[in-house]
Amino acid sequence: MSRAPTAPATELDAPPPVEPATRETIHALRDAVRAHVALRLDDPADAAQAGAMAVPACVLWNQFLRFDPASPDWPDRDRFVVSSTRHRPLLDALMRLAGQTPAPDGPTVEYGVHPAVEMAFGPSGQGVGAAIGMALAERQLAARFGRSIVNHRVWALSCGTELATGVAMEASSLAARMRLDRLTVLFEIAPHEEDEAEDTLARYAATGWMVRKVDADDHDAVQAALSAALRSRKPSILACSVTLRPAPRPPASPGAGPEPDHSTLLWAGAARRGASARRSWLRRLVKHRYRGEFERVATRRLPPFWREDWRRTWHMSAMPAILPASGPDTTLGYGRQGLEILRDLLPEMLCLSSRRGRERTEAMPADQALPDCGTLVHGLAALLNGIAVHGGLVPCGAITFVAIDRMRPALRFAAMMRRQVIYLLTDDGLALSEDGAGWLPVEQLASLRAMPNVLVFRPADRRETMECWELALRRADGPSLIALSPMASGVPAPGLRPYRPRDGSARGGYVMEEARGQRQVTLIATGSEIGIARQAQLLLARDGIGAALVSLPCWELFAGQDAAYRDQVLGDAPRIGIEAASGFGWDRWLGPRGTFIGMETFCEAAPSHELYRRLGITAERVHETAIRLVNETGRDFQSPSGQKADGHRARSAAGGIT
């Protein structure tokens, strides 16, 4: 789809005019907010700290923040991100007094319950990174649809300790490099935090942010600083020096009931201004040439018939050469092929990459180039969460597998918020074995599989890579990781039956090749180790031993299948698990008689083929282990998947409990 023409430099691009508020109005709003906070918190010290930023917050909400209480999910509203839990009571007070929530005395509003709460409270620094990701999403959508329907800002309320975290500094460095000038961060400076705050402000100024410092109780200074942020061509940070004062408590009413609260009337002007802006926006949207496409991406819907287009283009496209040494039969090559196809089919796909990830995937075409994130992968992951929360885009990140350890807090945050983020993990398995043990993902795969609401895909070949891409795109309620290897898997090998279950990856696991005759052992593998398992299967067939080959590209999806299907795939014969990673977690699939062949320790640097030999992840060892297990059991087993060697179907038999 062609890009919408950018709106000319009109009133749409200029900062909206700010009407000065009287000192009495701001003070009345401040007192109402602090009184509400005091009612929520029993400890006066906690209430004083929570209400310390009341004046900057009231100036922002009353004069600058563009929102409509009647439509809190309006796509072109300003985003207000509260990233620190210490400001939770302040956010609750602002929302209730501004009319965002109908029940003044109801419980605290949480993320996922009300659309005005932009994101959940998570690990320190993640909120700032997400706010930066939202600003990036706003810029990308404006470049595509024009400023007539995408023209909002991102405001974040943070604290000094959060801004000093590594993830916040990484994300802020990316924001300065991208010149995200529609982002403003406000944070408080308590008297005992002055020295640390000065150091933080110096770092942000050196990074390329506009930095201002004001007295939090001086509403004129706050208003002037926020106005300067609107005019700035850099991301802005506003440091507010606070003085902790006891929050006023409303006097107890001597009558039968409490006196009516008229403080919500103070926000009427801001509500009218927001409602008027939304009505004007709706009129522009109705006339916009890309209205249908904008509404589609705003509601997070994939295009009609995208799956048919995706599969047709996949099968018709030629395999690109990734690296001279990798060859065509690699999941990394297939992953890049999918990324290139999806950029044409889904214009909302936005991919950020580390330097190594860009080298492996060549992630951005020239006309959409974004600076690579280098080694700032923690900040990269935080930005992806913000893009996902903002809406309108499908965030994708390309990084090396071992770098996932630095992205784990952001990944966990995405899983907790149930947001769609796709990670392409390059250099899976022993791909970087020559660089030493520090680059070998030994325990990472097991730890990722243990994280709730995360799908980990490890495809073995071209077909599985296509299916895993599709599953990740269709999943809208959590992050998905696709582990890609530059090493050839050797699948399909000579003699491998063309039959496979349709969409076997969608069930997490399936029988790739049934045993020739009765099943005596089951070989279970993922990723590039499928090739090793296939070679061992051929060696066993030569010895007259029937071995079934099972692929488990996604454990989480396989665990979600009913027990009958899992038993049908795994069978009741002895099982051997093969994976170039830790065996932690494999017991659930191998059962009491099973054996795992993998990587249980760190190793010295060596070429991948040599390291496979040293670790014993070879077809010969699998062959020897299978013979031992068959001799120990001394009997044949049914082929519960119902497949026969000639490709016909046989009646299924139930297997044992795993």
From TrEMBL:
<comment type="similarity">
    <text>Belongs to the transketolase family.</text>
</comment>
<dbReference type="GO" id="GO:0046872">
    <property type="term" value="F:metal ion binding"/>
</dbReference>
<dbReference type="InterPro" id="IPR033247">
    <property type="entry name" value="Transketolase_fam"/>
</dbReference>
<keyword id="KW-0460">Magnesium</keyword>
<dbReference type="InterPro" id="IPR005475">
    <property type="entry name" value="Transketolase-like_Pyr-bd"/>
</dbReference>
<dbReference type="InterPro" id="IPR009014">
    <property type="entry name" value="Transketo_C/PFOR_II"/>
</dbReference>
<dbReference type="Pfam" id="PF00456">
    <property type="entry name" value="Transketolase_N"/>
</dbReference>
<feature type="region of interest" description="Disordered">
    <location>
        <begin position="633"/>
        <end position="658"/>
    </location>
</feature>
<dbReference type="GO" id="GO:0004802">
    <property type="term" value="F:transketolase activity"/>
</dbReference>
<dbReference type="Pfam" id="PF22613">
    <property type="entry name" value="Transketolase_C_1"/>
</dbReference>
<keyword id="KW-0479">Metal-binding</keyword>
<dbReference type="InterPro" id="IPR005474">
    <property type="entry name" value="Transketolase_N"/>
</dbReference>
<dbReference type="Pfam" id="PF02779">
    <property type="entry name" value="Transket_pyr"/>
</dbReference>
<keyword id="KW-0786">Thiamine pyrophosphate</keyword>
<protein>
    <submittedName>
        <fullName>Transketolase</fullName>
    </submittedName>
</protein>
<dbReference type="InterPro" id="IPR055152">
    <property type="entry name" value="Transketolase-like_C_2"/>
</dbReference>
<feature type="domain" description="Transketolase-like pyrimidine-binding">
    <location>
        <begin position="329"/>
        <end position="491"/>
    </location>
</feature>
<dbReference type="GO" id="GO:0006098">
    <property type="term" value="P:pentose-phosphate shunt"/>
</dbReference>
<dbReference type="GO" id="GO:0005829">
    <property type="term" value="C:cytosol"/>
</dbReference>
<keyword id="KW-0808">Transferase</keyword>
<dbReference type="InterPro" id="IPR029061">
    <property type="entry name" value="THDP-binding"/>
</dbReference>
